[in-house]
Every structure is written in C-alpha cells, then in structure tokens.
Write a structure and sequence with these properties.
Blueprint: H1 13-26, E1 33-40, H2 46-51, E2 64-68, H3 71-76, H4 86-89, E3 94-99, H5 108-113, E4 119-122, E5 140-143, H6 148-161, H7 163-180, H8 183-199, H9 216-220, H10 225-234, H11 253-284
Parallel strand pairs: 1-2, 1-3, 3-4, 4-5
Length: 285
Amino acid sequence: MVTGRAEVNIKPWRTLIKELEEGNRRVKWRDREPYAYWKGNPWVSDSRSDLMRCNVSKHHDWNARLYALNWDGEKRQGYKNSNLASQCKFVMACRYKIFVEGRAWSVSNKYILACDSPALFVSTHFHDFFSRGLMPGLHYWPIREDDKCSSIKFAVDWGNKHREEAEAMGRAGSSHMKEEVKMEYVYDYMLHLLIQYAKLLRYKPTVPEKATEFCLESLACPATGIVKKLLMESMEKWTEEAEPCRIPPPFNPEELREIMERKANVLKQIESWEKKKGSQMRKQI
C-alpha cells in the first residue's frame, strides 16, 4: 500500500487515490453503465472462478460485466489494460464494483471502495487492517457467497431503482477510504502496531556486531525499473512534526455487541429482501 506493487504496476496509495478522484469527477455515477464490474485473475480461488458464471451470456444477464485478467500477459504488454484508475474514468465505467477474495486477503478492496461506486462485497473470510470499520448497507452491499449471481442481480436492480441511496453508499465508501485510510493515519497505525508488538517481546533486542544498517539510499539505489520508480514516488519528502494520533480505547463488550448486532441486522434485512424477490420471480414462472 505504501510503495504500491511493482509486480502488477500498482502505484503508491497517495498517488493512486488522486487519480481515482480525478476519474470520479470525470464520469458521474449516474452516467455510468448500470451494471456491476469486476476485472481480475479468476484462477486463484474457487470463489473467483464461481463468480465468472455470473457473466452476461445468451441465456442470462445477471447485471454483471466480468473480465479475466492474466497478469503475466499484462506484464508483457506493459500493463495497458490494468490501470486501476481507469475503472472510474472511462466512459464504459460501471455503477457498481464487485470485490471477491483471491487465495486469501486481497488488496483490491480499497481501490474498489475509492471509486464512488457501491462496492458489492462477496462474503469475506479475511480482514484488512481497516475492514472491520466498514458497515454493510453504509459503505458496501453484501453479496452471498453461495448464490453470487442472483445476489449480484438483486443488488444492481435495487441500486438502479433506489439511485439516491445507492449513490450515497458509493460516496460513503469512497469518503471512508480517502479520509480514514489516508497515509498519515496508516503511518500512525504502523507505529502503534509496532509499539504493541514490542511490548510482547520477552527479551531486549540488540544490534548484532556485523549487522548492516539499512537506510533510504540502501533500499532505493540498488533498485531498477518500475521498482525504483515506485520507491521514489512513495518516498516521504519531510518528517511529521506533530505527534502521532491517539488510538481510541477498545470497545467495551456492550459497544462491540451493539456493532455486531447492527451488522447482523443489515445482513438479515438484505437477505430477506433477496428471498422475497426470488419468491416473487418463481411465482411468475
């Protein structure tokens, strides 16, 4: 996130978020195509492979527009078709963005959330450092893992029918990423995390006699190509004079229970809407 990902040409977060904001301004949400969009590597997990069944075909239109991405091929072609900012600014940008995990935790959720589009989150099993702060129905729309196609179609139909609510959800997710996951807070979080880990140590760390000191130059100077470009681009130009932010105290059991109940109630409400819609459709057949 700090330095980006050179192996797939993803720019540092501070740079990329500005490009995503530019794309959001260029194509307004209501002017985007009324479908759900996903582009990625479908071969890394069963869940992603299963998602590809929801693509438009001669027989079904689940309101999803899905594209397989081969990163090895992209690398050979100079990453012409994998610019993350393009998902927001091109004319064919879609109103909704799908997030589905790969082999494990995936970094793509923050890019998807930052696009001013309602993020459709297929049920997740892994957490990013910020994901527990997201609320279904406010920052994203939950998608059932065991019935992705019907769930995606319902979400898109609902959003196109309730455009003000859907647009507000997209803005809430995007604002959360821009304001709550800005790099200043990320660095503060890293500091507090390291401090807490240090408290668990049962020994006093010492510098070995033959240790080699790493500094900015020793990291960036030997690098070449895109690796060096992203390292230099992500380099901080000054030190922060202000004290790091204070981490709020942990939730007490009652507060935590209230948050979990709110999330559970939203999930149950949306699932009941989906079941009701499915029942109505079966009666019409």
